[in-house]
Amino acid sequence: MATSAVARETVFALRRQIAKIEGTLPERLQAPAGAPVDAPRNPTADVTPQDPTADVPPKNLTIVRRGLAVAPPDAFLRTGAEGLDTALSGGLPKAALSEIHGAATRDAGAVAGFALSLVSLILKQGPRLPVLWIGTAEIFREAGFPYARGLHRLFGIEPEQLLFSEAPRLVDALWTAEEAARMTVLAAVILEIRGSPQRLDLTATRRLHARAQSAGRPVFLLRQAGEPEPTAAPVRFVLSAAPSAPRQTIAGPLAGSIGRPAFTVSIGKSRTALPGQFTLEWNPDERSFEERRAGERRQEPAANPVPVVSASRRGKDPAPASGAVLAFAAVGSPAAGDQPSPGERAAHRRPRRAG
C-alpha cells in the first residue's frame, strides 16, 4: 500500500511539472476529492475518473491553456494587425517573456524598432511609466542607441522615459534584468543579447518569464545574430526589415519616396499559434501596426528620362589629363605664390620667452 501511494505521488509530481512547462493549469491535475488512494485496481474494470494512474485521462479533467479561456481580455497586447492578432489568439501576452530574434547584425535596427513599437502600444494603453533597456557594451557598440527625436516622433516616447543600463558582463545584464522584471514601476524591460551565449539557457529565461508573470509586466528579449535556441518565452518573433511602400498623398503614391517603416515578422515559436509570416507597417500617427497584404507590393520609382548630369562629350577644349595625386605634398620648397602656413612664419619660429 505504501509503495502504491508513493508511486501515485510521483506520477502527480511529474504531471504537475509537465503542466507548468506546457502552460496548463496544474491544479486541474489534482486527484478528485474523496478518491480512494490505496484502493486496489481491477485490471478488467472500466476506467473511472477516480483512477489517477490510468492512461486515459479522467472525464472530469479539463485542460485549459494559459492565454485562451482563462486569461482576461486585457492580458493581451493587440498590435492592430488583425492577421497577427488572430494567429496569436488575441495578441501578444503582456505579463510574459517575449523573444524578438534577428538573424544577422544588420537586422538589429529592425529588431529594436519593432520592440519600441510594442513599447509604444503599451504606453498608449496604460500609465506612461519609464522603460529600462539593458545590454552590454558590445551591444551598444554594434547597434548604437536610439535617436531621441525619433523616439518622440515615431513612437511617442519621451527621451527621459527610456533608461539604459550598460552592464560590463552578460551575467551582470541578466541579473539586472531579473531584478528589474519584478518592479511594477517600469512599463517594460528590454534585454538585448548578442549571439548565443551559454548563460542564456532555459533556466535563465524561465526566471525572467516567472518575474514578468509575477509583476504583470512584459520583458522583451532582443537577440542579435543568435541561433533559435530553446527558451521559456511563449512567443518568438523572427524580425527583418521589409521594403517601405511609397508615401501616400491625395494624388496617390508619391514615386521615389519612402513611406512608413515596415517589418517582416515571422512567428518562430508560439504555444497557441502556428508558424506564419506577416508584413507589418508601423503607423506613427495612430501608434498601431497595419498589415500589408500580398498584393500591396512596393512600387518601384519611375525612371527619369532626363539625366541630372549630361554625359561627357569631346569638345573643342578637352580637360587636360590629371597628374599624379599624392596624399602628402612633395618634400621641397613651396611653389611660387603659395603662402607659408602660420607655423612656418618667422614670428612663430622664435623661441618662447620664459616667465
Spans of at least 5 consecutive residues whose pLDDT stays below 50 are: 25-69, 298-302, 306-312, 347-355
Order of helices and strands: HEHEEHEHHEHEHEEEEEEEH
Number of helices: 8
User: What structural class do helix, strand and pairing data support?
Assistant: alpha/beta
DSSP, total strands: 13
Sketch the major β-sheet: 9 strands, mixed
Radius of gyration: 31 Å
Helix content: 25-40%
Percent of residues in beta strands? Answer: 15-25%
| Rounded mean pLDDT score | 77
Distance between termini? 103 Å
* Shape type: globular
Strand order of the largest sheet: 5-4-6-7-3-8-11-12-13
Question: What's this model, at a glance?
Answer:
This protein is α/β, with parallel strands linked by helices. It has helices spanning 2-22, 82-87, 108-125, 137-143, 148-155, 170-181, 202-215, 346-349, and strands at residues 76-77, 92-93, 97-102, 131-136, 162-167, 188-194, 219-224, 235-241, 247-249, 252-254, 262-270, 277-283, 288-291. Strands 5-4-6-7-3-8-11-12-13 form a 9-stranded mixed sheet, with helices on both faces. It has a two-stranded antiparallel ribbon with strand order 1-2.
